[in-house]
Design brief:
With 259 residues, the chain is of the alpha+beta class. The protein contains 8 helices and 9 strands. The strands form 3 sheets. A 4-stranded antiparallel β-sheet has the order 2-8-3-6, with no helix packed on it. A 3-stranded antiparallel β-sheet has the order 5-4-7, with no helix packed on it. The chain has a two-stranded antiparallel sheet with strand order 1-9.
Length: 259
């Protein structure tokens, strides 16, 4: 089949005419299928202010960063079919999340850096404040799906907890971080501008000695993701070393050991 994104002009944040579906490079909420490999994407992941947040959460400096996606959401003011935000969901279903917590393991966190202002009009992050504290009761009141594993899960549309979710507007440059067990989504767009963001998270490296297999469980774990990107010809080892020039940066992406 013909490649998507080759039927019109390059996608431009300032030109809504270039956002048409026939010109959109991917079917998903992300602009492209490939992970973010631009030097600025790595700079954002390595930013001291970002790293410090995850050091505080995990109480260790031995961290690795995921190689995740850009998030780009079209303004839907003149095209209602682009309006819908992400439906409320848990990245890790509550039954699995509580199972890890009961063993004293923290499954981790997800983060989002706003690359443009995210308002109620453009659509923004949506979350259930303190949601992980209510999971034990929610689990008692709900039936575990037959096949749960580590899959994400959506609550029923009429689940009472959904009405307590709150939008989290962000200014450009701000970041929001939430637990893998946090119910979240995003609000609808009623704007004529793109909403731009980068998904960023860090997790303990194997040298941190955690029982939880962060690298193995995370689909965007840096070691396997960068290995796949090199195999596919999207980035070379020399290019990575040209972007990640310090030992600390190379440790964050598994190119150097902490020991």
């Amino acid at each position: 089949p013909p490649r998507r994104g080759r039927r019109g002009p390059a996608v431009s944040p300032s030109d809504p005419a270039s956002w048409d579906t026939k010109n959109w490079p991917a079917k998903s909420k992300f602009l492209v299928r490939k992970v973010a490999l631009h030097p600025q994407a790595f700079a954002n992941r390595c930013a001291p202010s970002v790293v410090k947040v995850f050091e505080a959460l995990f109480k260790t400096s031995k961290l690795r960063a995921t190689v995740d996606n850009w998030g780009i959401v079209r303004g839907a003011k003149h095209n209602p079919k682009w309006k819908a935000g992400l439906k409320p969901h848990w990245d890790l279903n509550p039954f699995s999340f509580r199972g890890y917590c009961d063993k004293g393991q923290d499954p981790g966190y997800q983060g989002l850096i706003a690359l443009s202002d995210q308002t109620l009009e453009t659509g923004c992050h949506l979350t259930l404040p303190g949601g992980t504290s209510f999971l034990p009761l929610w689990i008692k009141e709900n039936v575990m799906p037959l096949t749960v594993n580590r899959k994400s899960l959506r609550p029923d549309q009429d689940d009472p907890i959904v009405k307590y979710m709150q939008p989290i507007p962000l200014r450009k440059g701000e970041m929001v971080v939430w637990s893998w067990g946090q119910l979240h989504g995003s609000t609808d767009s009623d704007s004529d501008v793109l909403r731009l963001q980068q998904y960023v998270r860090l997790y303990p490296s194997p040298e941190a000695g955690e029982a939880y297999d962060y690298e193995g469980h995370d689909r965007y774990g840096c070691v396997k993701t960068l290995r796949r990107c090199q195999k596919d010809g999207n980035v070379t080892a020399d290019e990575l070393l040209g972007i990640l020039t310090t030992q600390h940066e190379q440790r964050l992406f598994g190119l150097e050991s902490f020991e």
